[in-house]
C-alpha cells in the first residue's frame, strides 16, 4: 500500500472514544491510543527489526512487512499530530540490524518528542536511543496514569501497558470462531494491542468487569457486554 | 552364471525351506535380472520381500563369481519402508537368504530410531542392503560426499508404495529417486504396491516421465486372490436402533460371543476417541476380560504399542481394540477374527483390515461389520458388493508441491551443494513437477537464496548461498543443523507427552485437548482414568484418578469421508432398494426405515436426485442427497447456498454428512427457482467456490504444513524449547503477512490449490454436479423430517453462509463472547 492510499483508509477508519478519570482517549484501529488532554500518542509492541531478524536466520518473511511498520507509524503521527509519541516497550525485537537505520530516519523526520518505556525485548543500549534524542524510562507516572511495558498496579493510578499482545476469540453460530487483536480494559488498566504487523496475539478470556475493544477490519468495536452501544 | 542358473539357485533355496516360488516372484526375478524397472502389485504376506530381495542377491552373484571367498564392500540396495516397525522383519528375511547362500552380504537398518553411533558406523562402511525410510534417505542426501555412497547402487525398492503415493512423502520419494537416477548409473527402481484403482499412474509416479527410462519398465501383478467374507451384525430390534450416532455401543453385547469364540480378535475403530471408549466399555461391562484385552492407537507410547504387538503374536491376548495404527504391516498369524466398528468409508481400508485375519491358505478371512447407526447398514450391504466385485479406490498423487521441492533443494545445498542446471532436468522428469515452468523454478531458487525478494542492498537474508562458480550451498552450520532436524513431510499437531508424576511415559496427546483441561480434571487416555496434576513445558503430568469417568481424550482428524467408489456402490444399493428387491440381510433389516422413507418421501433410485423440503420450529429445511461423502457435500452446500443468496438476500445454516446436506433458513425457499436458475451448474465452479467458502480459513490450515515443510517455521530443537523461542513464529502469522505483502508467493498460493484439490475435492465435486445435471430431480414437499434427513438435521457440526459484513456479524456475535 502506498502512503496516499493508506491515509485515505486511515481517515475513514471508525475509532472509539473513551473516558478514563475524566481524561479523553481515542482508540485507533491501528492499535494506537491518542491521549487528547496530553496530545500524546501511546503505541505498544512495534517489534521493529523482527522481520530482518527472521530473515537473517533463514525464514523468508516478506521484507515489505518491515517497511510497512514505519509507514504506519508515520501515517498515524501525521494524522494525530501528537506532541509526544510514547512507545510502551518492545519497540525493537532484537539486536541492532538494518531496520535501525530506517528507525533513525523516522525519528529525525517526526516532529513529536519520542519516549520509550523499556520492554523485555529492548536490548539495544540506551545511549543509542539517547543519541537520537529518544528518552528511555522504565516506567512513567503522569497525572495519575502509570505507563509501563508489563501490566502493573499502583494503587490510585490507571495503568497503560503492552507486552501481552491481547487478542479475543469470538464464537459465532455453528462452531465458528474468529480471533481479533483488541484493546483490553480492566478496572485499573488498559493493555494495548501490538502495533507491529508481524507479532501475533495472545487470546485472553475476559471476566465480567473487563471491557474489550476488538479491531475488526479497520474498525474498533466494543465486544464486551458492559458498555454496549 | 547364466540367468537360468541363477534362478535355480533361488529355486533350490526355496525347496530347502519346503516352499514353492509363485509365478509372480519368478517373473519379478527375471525382469530384475534383465535390468528392468517396475512396479510389483502384491498384497502383504504374499512373499513380496523375496520377490525383490532374491534377484538383488542373484545380481551380486552374477557380478562376483567368487562371492563366497571375496566380499565386495559397499551399498548395493536400498529398501524403503514407510513404517519403521516393519524394518526388523524385512531385515530378518533378507539376512536369512543372504546367509544361507553364504554370500557374506550384510543387512542394516537406518531410521529415526537408529542410535547415533550406529549411524556413524554405517557412514564409514555402509551395509550391502540398507533398510530405511524416505526421511532417512533424504538425510543421507544432506551429507557430504553422498554420491560416493550411492555410486554402486544396483537397486532401490520402495515398499508399500501405495501408502506413500497419496502423500507428500511420495513427492519426497520422487525427488530422491530423481537424484539417485543421476548418481547411481546402474540403478533399477522397483515399487511394491497393494491393489489400488490407479496402478498405472502409481507406476508413472514412481518411475517418472522420462520415456527412455520407462521403455525398460514392467508392471507385475501377483493375482493372489484372497477370499473375504463380510458378516454384518444386525440388531435384533430395529425399532430401537438409532438413526444417528457414531459410537455403536448399543451393540456391544453382540460382539462378546464373537470375541469369546475366537483365539484373537482385532476390533477396528475409526478414531482414537472411539477406540478409547470401546476399550473402557468392554471392560466395564465384562470385567472378566481384564488383562486379556488391550488397546492400540497412534498416541499410545511406543513401548506399550510394541508390547501389544508382541502379545498378539504370542497369543496372550483375547482381543485388541485398535485404530488404523494396526492397519499396516506386520502379520499377526494368531488373529482369527476382525470386527469393524462403523463404516470404514473406503473399500481399500476395509479390505486391508479384513486381511489382518486368518492367514491359513484356502480359508476365507472373516470380517464382522458393526454399524453405528441404521443407515450404515446400507454401507455394509454396499461393502459386500464392493468386496465381491473387487472395487478399489485411487490414490491421488500430489502435483507441484513447491514446499517439498524447496525442502529438497535446501537438503542438497546442505550436502554437497548443487548446480541448478544439473538437477533441473531431473526434476522436470518427475511426475509431480512435470508441469513446472522456468519461471516457477527461478522463483524457488530465488526463495532459498534471497528469501523471495529482489536483491536489496542491505537485506541480511541468509539460507542458501551461491558461490562464484554458481554452486548453491548452505555455509552456515546453524542453518544446516536446523534444516537436518526439519527434514520430513509429516507435520503433526503440537503434541504433549503424558507422564505420571512419579515418572513413566503413557503417551502423547494433542496440545489443544490438554489446554481445555483445568488442573485436577480427570480424563480417559490409554484406557486409564487420569487426573491432570500440572503442566511442565510440553509435558502433562498426571496421576491415576479415583474417579470412575472423565472426559474422553479427543483427537483431531480421523473422520474420513466416503470415497467416490464407495459412494457409487452406495447409490447402486439404493437403486436396488428403490426397486424393492431388498435382497440382502442388511436391506431387509432396514425395511421399517425404508418403508417410512417411502411413505414420507421416496427412496431415490440411481438416476434420481432427491430434494426434500419441510418446516419445523427451527425453520425451513431443504435437504439434498447426492451420496458423495462429507467433503463434497461441504463444498456443494456452500456453493448452492451462495448461488441462492445471489438471487435474493438470505442467510443459511448448513449441515452435511456422508449421504447428503441441508440448507436451513428462516425464510421459505422455493426449490423451483433453484432448478429454474440452473444452480447445480458446473460452470464458474472455481470462482463461485472461492466466494462461497471461507477458503481463506481452509487455506490457512493447509498453510501450516506447507510452512513447516518448506522450512519457514522451525519447530525447534528436540528438548530445547526455550533457546529457539526468538525464532519461533507461527504459520498463521506468516500466512497473514504473505496475504498482505506477498500474495503471489508460490507457497501461499499452494495452500489454496491444496484446499481445492485435496480438501474440497474439486474434481469430484465437478463430476458430482455433472451427474446431478443428468439425473431426474425429484422434489418432495414433506410434512415432517424423514428418516434420511434425520441424521443430517440433528448434526451439531454446522457452518453458516451469509453475505453480511464481518463487522456486522461481530456486532451480533457480541453476546457470545467467551467468558471464563
TrEMBL record, chain B:
Note the InterPro entries from the entry: ATP-dep_Helicase, DEAD/DEAH_box_helicase_dom, DEXH_lig_assoc, Helicase_ATP-bd, Helicase_C-like, Lhr-like, Lhr-like_DEAD/DEAH_assoc, Lhr_WH_dom
Pfam families for this protein: DEAD, DEAD_assoc, Helicase_C, WHD_Lhr
Alphabetized UniProt keyword annotations: ATP-binding, DNA damage, DNA repair, DNA-binding, Helicase, Hydrolase, Isomerase, Ligase, Nucleotide-binding
Transmembrane annotation, as ranges: none
Mention one GO molecular function: ligase activity
Q: Does the keyword 4Fe-4S apply?
A: no
State the name under which the record lists this protein. Answer: Ligase-associated DNA damage response DEXH box helicase
Q: Cite the Gene3D superfamilies for this sequence.
A: P-loop containing nucleotide triphosphate hydrolases (3.40.50.300)
Task: Write down the CDD domains for this protein, in alphabetical order.
Answer: DEXHc_LHR-like, SF2_C_LHR
Coiled-coil stretches: none
As for family, the record states:
Belongs to the Lhr helicase family. Lhr-Core subfamily.
PANTHER family, A to Z: ATP-DEPENDENT HELICASE LHR-RELATED-RELATED, LARGE ATP-DEPENDENT HELICASE-RELATED PROTEIN
Residues forming the Helicase ATP-binding domain are 29-214
Domain of life of the source: Bacteria
Q: Does the keyword DNA damage belong to this entry?
A: yes
Residue stretches making up the Helicase C-terminal domain: 251-410
Amino acid at each position: 500500500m502506498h502512503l496516499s492510499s493508506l491515509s485515505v483508509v486511515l481517515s475513514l477508519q471508525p475509532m472509539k472514544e473513551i473516558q478514563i478519570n475524566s481524561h479523553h482517549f481515542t482508540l485507533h484501529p491501528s492499535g494506537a491510543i491518542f491521549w487528547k488532554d496530553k496530545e500524546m500518542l501511546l503505541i505498544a509492541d512495534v517489534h521493529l527489526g523482527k522481520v530482518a531478524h527472521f530473515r537473517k536466520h533463514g525464514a523468508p518473511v516478506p521484507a515489505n512487512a518491515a517497511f510497512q511498520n514505519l509507514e504506519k507509524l508515520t501515517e498515524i503521527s501525521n494524522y494525530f499530530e501528537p506532541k509526544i509519541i510514547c512507545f510502551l516497550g518492545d519497540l525493537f525485537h532484537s539486536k541492532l540490524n538494518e531496520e535501525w537505520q530506517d528507525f533513525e530516519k523516522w525519528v529525525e523526520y517526526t516532529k513529536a518528542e519520542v519516549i520509550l518505556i523499556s520492554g523485555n525485548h529492548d536490548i539495544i543500549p540506551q545511549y543509542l536511543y539517547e543519541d537520537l534524542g529518544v528518552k528511555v524510562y522504565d516506567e512513567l507516572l503522569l497525572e495519575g496514569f502509570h505507563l509501563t511495558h508489563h501490566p502493573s498496579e499502583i494503587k490510585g493510578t490507571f495503568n497503560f501497558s503492552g507486552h501481552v499482545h491481547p487478542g479475543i476469540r469470538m464464537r459465532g453460530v455453528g462452531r465458528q470462531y474468529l480471533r481479533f487483536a483488541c484493546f483490553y480494559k480492566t478496572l485499573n488498566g488498559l493493555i494495548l494491542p501490538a502495533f507491529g504487523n508481524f507479532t501475533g496475539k495472545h487470546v485472553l478470556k475476559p471476566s465480567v468487569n473487563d471491557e474489550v475493544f476488538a479491531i475488526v477490519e479497520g474498525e474498533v468495536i466494543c465486544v464486551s457486554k458492559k458498555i454496549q452501544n | 552364471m547364466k540367468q537360468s542358473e541363477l534362478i535355480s539357485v533361488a529355486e533350490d533355496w526355496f525347496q530347502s525351506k519346503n516352499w514353492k516360488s509363485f509365478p509372480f516372484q519368478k517373473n519379478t526375478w527375471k525382469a530384475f535380472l534383465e535390468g528392468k524397472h517396475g512396479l510389483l502389485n502384491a498384497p502383504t504376506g504374499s512373499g513380496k520381500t523375496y520377490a525383490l530381495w532374491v534377484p538383488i542377491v542373484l545380481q551380486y552373484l552374477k557380478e562376483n563369481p567368487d562371492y563366497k571367498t571375496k566380499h565386495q564392500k559397499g551399498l548395493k540396495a536400498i529398501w524403503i519402508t514407510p513404517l519403521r516397525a516393519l524394518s526388523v522383519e524385512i531385515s530378518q528375511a533378507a539376512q536369512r537368504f543372504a546367509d544361507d547362500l553364504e554370500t557374506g552380504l550384510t543387512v542394516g537398518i537406518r531410521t529415526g530410531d537408529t542410535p547415533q553411533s550406529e549411524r556413524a558406523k554405517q557412514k564409514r562402511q555402509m551395509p550391502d542392503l540398507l533398510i530405511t525410510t524416505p526421511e532417512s534417505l533424504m538425510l543421507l542426501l544432506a551429507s557430504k560426499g553422498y554420491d560416493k555412497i550411492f555410486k554402486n547402487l544396483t537397486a532401490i525398492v520402495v515398499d508399500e508404495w501405495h501408502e506413500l503415493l497419496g502423500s507428500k512423502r511420495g513427492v519426497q520419494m520422487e525427488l530422491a529417486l530423481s537424484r539417485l537416477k543421476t548418481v547411481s548409473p546402474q540403478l533399477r527402481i522397483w515399487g511394491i504396491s497393494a491393489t489400488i484403482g490407479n496402478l498405472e499412474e502409481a507406476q508413472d509416479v514412481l518411475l517418472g516421465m522420462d520415456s527412455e527410462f520407462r521403455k525398460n519398465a514392467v508392471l507385475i501383478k501377483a493375482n493372489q486372490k484372497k477370499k473375504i467374507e463380510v458378516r454384518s451384525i444386525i440388531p435384533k430390534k430395529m425399532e430401537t436402533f438409532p438413526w444417528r450416532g457414531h459410537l455403536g455401543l448399543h451393540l456391544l453385547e453382540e460382539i462378546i460371543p464373537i470375541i469369546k469364540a475366537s483365539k484373537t480378535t482385532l476390533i477396528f475403530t475409526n478414531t482414537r476417541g472411539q477406540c478409547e471408549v470401546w476399550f473402557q466399555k468392554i471392560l466395564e461391562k465384562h470385567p472378566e476380560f481384564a488383562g486379556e484385552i488391550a488397546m492400540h492407537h497412534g498416541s499410545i507410547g511406543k513401548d506399550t504399542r510394541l508390547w501389544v504387538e508382541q502379545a498378539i503374536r504370542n497369543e496372550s491376548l483375547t482381543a485388541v481394540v485398535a485404530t488404523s495404527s494396526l492397519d499396516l504391516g506386520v502379520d499377526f498369524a494368531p488373529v482369527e477374527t476382525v470386527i469393524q466398528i462403523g463404516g470404514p468409508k473406503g473399500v481399500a481400508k476395509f479390505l486391508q483390515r479384513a486381511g489382518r485375519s486368518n492367514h491359513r491358505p484356502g480359508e476365507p478371512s472373516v470380517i464382522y461389520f458393526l454399524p453405528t447407526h441404521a443407515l450404515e447398514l446400507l454401507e455394509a450391504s454396499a461393502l459386500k458388493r464392493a468386496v465381491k466385485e473387487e472395487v478399489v479406490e485411487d490414490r491421488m498423487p500430489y502435483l507441484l508441491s513447491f514446499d517439498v521441492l524447496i525442502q529438497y533443494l535446501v537438503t542438497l545445498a546442505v550436502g554437497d551443494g548443487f548446480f541448478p542446471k544439473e538437477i533441473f532436468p531431473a526434476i522436470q522428469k518427475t511426475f509431480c513437477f512435470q508441469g513446472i515452468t522456468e519461471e516457477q523454478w527461478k522463483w524457488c531458487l530465488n526463495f532459498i537464496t534471497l528469501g523471495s525478494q529482489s536483491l536489496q542492498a542491505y537485506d541480511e537474508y541468509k539460507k542458501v548461498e551461491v558461490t562464484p562458480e554458481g554452486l548453491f550451498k548452505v555455509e552456515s552450520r546453524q542453518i544446516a543443523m536446523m534444516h537436518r532436524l526439519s527434514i520430513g513431510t509429516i507435520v503433526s499437531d503440537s503434541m504433549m507427552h503424558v507422564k505420571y508424576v512419579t515418572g513413566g511415559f503413557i503417551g502423547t496427546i494433542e496440545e489443544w485437548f490438554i489446554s481445555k483441561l483445568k488442573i485436577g480434571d480427570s480424563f480417559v487416555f490409554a484406557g486409564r482414568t487420569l487426573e491432570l496434576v500440572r503442566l511442565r513445558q510440553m509435558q502433562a503430568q498426571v496421576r491415576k484418578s479415583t474417579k470412575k469417568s472423565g472426559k474422553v481424550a479427543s483427537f483431531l482428524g480421523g473422520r474420513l469421508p466416503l470415497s467416490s467408489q464407495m459412494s457409487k456402490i452406495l447409490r447402486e444399493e439404493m437403486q436396488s432398494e428403490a426397486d424393492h428387491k431388498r435382497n440382502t440381510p442388511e436391506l431387509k433389516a432396514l425395511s421399517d426405515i425404508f418403508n417410512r422413507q417411502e411413505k414420507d418421501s421416496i427412496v431415490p433410485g440411481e438416476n434420481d436426485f432427491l430434494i426434500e423440503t419441510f418446516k419445523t420450529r427451527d425453520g425451513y429445511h431443504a435437504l439434498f442427497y447426492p451420496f458423495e461423502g462429507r467433503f463434497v457435500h461441504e463444498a456443494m452446500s456452500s456453493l448452492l447456498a451462495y448461488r441462492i443468496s445471489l438471487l435474493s438476500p438470505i442467510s443459511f445454516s448448513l449441515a452435511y454428512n456422508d449421504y447428503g446436506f441441508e440448507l436451513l433458513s428462516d425464510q421459505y425457499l422455493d426449490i423451483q427457482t433453484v432448478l429454474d436458475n440452473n444452480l447445480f451448474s458446473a460452470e464458474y465452479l472455481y470462482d463461485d467456490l472461492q466466494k462461497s467458502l471461507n477458503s481463506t480459513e481452509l487455506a490457512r490450515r493447509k498453510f501450516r504444513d506447507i510452512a513447516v515443510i518448506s522450512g519457514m517455521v522451525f519447530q525447534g530443537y528436540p528438548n530445547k524449547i526455550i533457546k529457539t523461542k526468538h525464532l519461533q513464529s507461527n504459520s498463521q502469522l506468516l500466512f497473514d503477512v504473505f496475504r498482505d505483502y506477498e500474495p503471489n508467493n508460490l507457497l501461499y498460493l499452494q495452500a489454496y490449490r491444496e484446499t481445492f484439490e485435496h480438501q474440497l475435492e474439486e474434481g469430484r465435486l465437478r463430476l458430482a454436479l455433472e451427474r446431478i445435471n443428468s439425473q431426474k430431480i425429484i422434489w418432495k414437499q414433506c410434512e415432517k423430517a424423514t428418516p434420511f434427513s434425520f441424521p443430517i438435521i440433528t448434526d451439531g457440526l454446522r457452518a453458516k453462509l451469509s453475505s453480511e459484513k464481518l463487522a456486522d456479524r461481530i456486532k451480533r456475535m457480541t453476546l457470545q463472547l467467551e467468558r471464563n
